Each structure stands twice: as structure tokens, then as C-alpha cells.
Write a sequence for this structure.
């Protein structure tokens, strides 16, 4: 039986596409190493960023299986984000003052630069797909005393605003 060259090329391209899809879905990152960096944030942080004075508190809970981030700024309602591993994936759920709870999956982690990026997966209490919600997060572990964060808010299927902060460890 003779194999047609176009069939072989198609199978090869399909395998490459599946591998690329795996990398984009977050399976190619070292989720455990990224999660270990998040656990090292335990403590109190402050920033004078886009939101004025902002404070973050990180706590490792549930025998090390979740990291809770509490975010407060001025008169704004407190928000909460929970990070956890799910098999080989690193996920977060953000309990937002917008009244919805977007879930995001880590898509990229570079241990050398300290950059960790999350992308939207789905959300609870999202009125419709065009409703405003946090859609992407980029954290950068600058060193043990500094953390940069960039949160991107989407509405009507595109970016509406970006919140950027540099945090310094308080304790």
C-alpha cells in the first residue's frame, strides 16, 4: 500500500497544530514552578498605581493548595482572587466588584524574567459574552520585594481598560 505525500503532510501539520494548541492552552508551562512563585508572595504589599494607594494581602491556605489574594484600594469594594493548581494547569478565579467571577488559566511562565500570564477561560455570573469582565492578567515577580501586575478589563469583546501597579512588600 502506497501512502500519498499529501496525506503524510496533512498528518504532520495536524500533529504540529495539536502541539501548538497544547502550548497555547497552558499545558506547556511549568505550572508547579509558577505556583511556587505565587506562594512566595505570602504577606502584605502596597502600591501607588493606577488606583491610587492599593494594598494586596497574600495568604497560602488549605494546606498549601490555594493562594488567596485580597485587593483593597480607597473606597473601592475589596476584591479577592484565588490561585490553585488543577492537575497540570494553574488557574485563578477573580471575585470582581463587577459582580462576576472570571476564571483564567496560566498560558505563559518565564522563570528567568518572572513573568506569568493568565488568559480568560470562562466566568460565572457573566450576564452575556459582551458584559464587562477581567480578561487577562500579567504578573511579573521583579524580585522578593517587588511585584508588577497588569489586569486587563474587556467589554464588548475587546479591551476597555488596563490597570497597572507596582507593589512593594510591606511584610
Amino acid at each position: 500500500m502506497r501512502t500519498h505525500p499529501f496525506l503524510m503532510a496533512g498528518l504532520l501539520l495536524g500533529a504540529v497544530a495539536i502541539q501548538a494548541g497544547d502550548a497555547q492552552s497552558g499545558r506547556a508551562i511549568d505550572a508547579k514552578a509558577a505556583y511556587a512563585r505565587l506562594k512566595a508572595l505570602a504577606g502584605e504589599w502596597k502600591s501607588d498605581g493606577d488606583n491610587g494607594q492599593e494594598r494586596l494581602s497574600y495568604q497560602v491556605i488549605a494546606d498549601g493548595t490555594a493562594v488567596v489574594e485580597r485587593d483593597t484600594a480607597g473606597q473601592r469594594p475589596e476584591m479577592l482572587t484565588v490561585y490553585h493548581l488543577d492537575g497540570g494547569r494553574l488557574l485563578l478565579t477573580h471575585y470582581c466588584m463587577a459582580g462576576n467571577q472570571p476564571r483564567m488559566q496560566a498560558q505563559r511562565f518565564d522563570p528567568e524574567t518572572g513573568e506569568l500570564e493568565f488568559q480568560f477561560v470562562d466566568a460565572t455570573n457573566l450576564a452575556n459574552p459582551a458584559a464587562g469582565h477581567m480578561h487577562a492578567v500579567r504578573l511579573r515577580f521583579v524580585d522578593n520585594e517587588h511585584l508588577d501586575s497588569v489586569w486587563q478589563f474587556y467589554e464588548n469583546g475587546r479591551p476597555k481598560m488596563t490597570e497597572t501597579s507596582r507593589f512593594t512588600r510591606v511584610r
Summary: The first helix runs from residue 5 to 24. The chain has one domain: 29-169. The radius of gyration is 19 Å. The longest strand covers residues 158-169.
